[in-house]
C-alpha cells in the first residue's frame, strides 16, 4: 500500500518521464478509475495536446500540472506508474495510458492498478483543487515537520497516537508502515493518547518519521523505477519492525508484539516503547 515514500518515488519517476512533455494521445481503459459519472472520452479529449508542466506531490497524492488544468492521481492500494515504448503491448491491469513526446523522444506512460482503488481526477483550468488535496496537513518532505505545531495539534487529540498519525490532516502521507516504524524509533507506545505526548517525545517522533521516510525512499530508488510494495508476493520486508511480529526487537531483543488498534494491525515492542 502506498505511503509518502512510494508516492514520492512515483513523483520522481513521473518527473523524468512526463514533465516537460507534450501529450500526443491519452487513453482510459477503465472508467472506474475516474470519478463517478465522468466519461473516459471527455478525459481523453481534455488531455490530448496538453503540455505537462510539473509533477507535484502532497501526502499520498500526485498532482500533474498541465498548461490547462491539472490531474490528481492517487495510487489507492496497488497503483503504479510505469514507462514503456509507444509500440509496447498493454500491461496487465493497465488503466490509463499517456503517449508523450519531448523533442524526438516518444514515451508511453501507463498507470497500472490491480485492485483499482486508485483515482485519476481531472480538474479543468479555472476549477479549484480537489478537497482531498487542499485538506491535507503539512507534508513531512515538502513542508518539513514543525515540532511545536505538531505538538500543539496532538495536544487537542485524545485518540491514541497511532491512529491519530494516520489522519491525513495531522501530517500528510503517513500510513500504517511509517506510523509503526516512527513510533518504534521514538520509543512511544502506539496506544498512548496523542495529547499526553511531551514536546520531547513529539520531537523524537518527528525525527523517527523522517528517518523512516528517508530509508524507504532510498530502498525504492535501489529497487528501480517502478514502485515495489512490501505486500507483493516475493517482496522482501525491509522494515525495522513492521511485519516482524514475534521476532526479537532490534533494540532490546524482546519479542515484538502485534495488536489491532483502531482496526489496524500494529506491531510494537511492549518492552521499549513506553
Ligand atoms: Zn524493544
> Are any ligands bound, and if so which?
zinc ion
**Terminal residue distance:** 28 Å
By secondary-structure content and strand pairing, the structural class works out as alpha+beta
Order of helices and strands: HEHEEEEEEEHHHHHEE
The beta-strand count equals 10
Main sheet specs: 4 strands, antiparallel
Strand order of the largest sheet: 1-6-7-5
Percent helix: 25-40%
The averaged pLDDT comes out at 97
Low-pLDDT runs of 5+ residues are none
What proportion strand? 15-25%
> If you compute it from the alpha carbons, what radius of gyration comes out, rounded to the nearest whole angstrom?
20 Å
Q: What report would you give on this structure?
A:
The chain has helices at residues 4-17, 40-47, 131-134, 147-154, 161-166, 176-185, 199-223, and strands spanning 22-28, 52-58, 61-66, 70-74, 79-84, 94-102, 105-113, 119-123, 257-261, 264-268. It has 274 residues and is of the alpha+beta class. Strand 3 (61-66) and strand 4 form a beta hairpin. The two termini are 28 Å apart. The structure holds zinc ion. Zinc ion (ZN) binds at residues 249, 251-252, 254, 269, 271-272.
Amino acid at each position: 500500500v502506498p505511503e509518502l515514500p512510494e508516492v514520492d518515488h512515483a513523483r520522481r519517476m513521473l518527473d523524468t518521464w512526463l514533465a516537460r512533455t507534450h501529450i500526443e494521445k491519452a487513453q482510459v481503459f477503465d472508467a472506474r478509475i475516474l470519478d463517478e459519472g465522468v466519461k473516459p472520452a471527455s478525459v481523453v479529449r481534455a488531455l490530448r495536446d496538453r503540455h505537462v508542466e510539473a509533477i507535484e506531490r502532497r501526502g499520498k497524492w500526485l498532482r500533474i500540472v498541465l498548461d490547462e488544468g491539472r490531474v490528481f492521481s492517487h495510487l489507492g492500494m496497488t497503483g503504479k506508474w510505469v514507462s514503456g515504448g509507444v509500440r509496447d503491448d498493454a500491461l496487465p491491469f493497465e488503466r490509463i495510458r499517456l503517449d508523450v513526446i519531448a523533442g524526438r523522444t516518444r514515451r508511453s506512460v501507463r498507470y497500472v492498478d490491480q485492485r483499482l482503488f486508485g483515482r485519476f481526477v481531472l480538474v479543468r483550468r479555472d476549477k479549484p483543487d480537489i478537497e482531498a488535496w487542499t485538506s491535507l496537513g503539512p507534508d513531512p518532505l515538502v513542508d518539513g515537520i514543525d515540532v511545536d505545531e505538531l505538538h500543539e495539534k496532538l495536544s487537542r487529540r485524545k485518540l491514541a497516537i497511532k491512529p491519530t498519525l494516520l489522519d491525513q490532516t495531522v501530517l500528510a502521507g503517513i500510513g500504517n508502515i511509517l506510523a509503526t516504524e516512527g513510533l518504534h524509533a521514538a520509543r512511544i507506545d502506539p496506544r498512548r493518547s496523542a495529547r499526553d505526548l511531551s514536546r520531547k517525545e513529539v520531537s523524537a517522533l518527528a525525527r523517527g518519521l523522517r528517518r523512516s521516510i528517508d530509508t524507504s525512499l532510498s530502498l525504492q530508488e535501489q529497487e528501480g523505477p517502478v514502485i515495489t510494495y512490501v505486500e507483493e508476493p516475493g517482496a522482501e520486508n525491509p522494515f525495522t519492525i513492521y511485519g516482524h511480529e514475534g521476532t526479537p526487537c532490534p533494540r532490546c531483543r524482546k519479542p515484538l508484539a502485534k495488536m489491532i488498534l483502531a482496526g489496524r494491525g500494529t506491531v510494537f515492542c511492549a518492552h521499549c516503547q513506553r
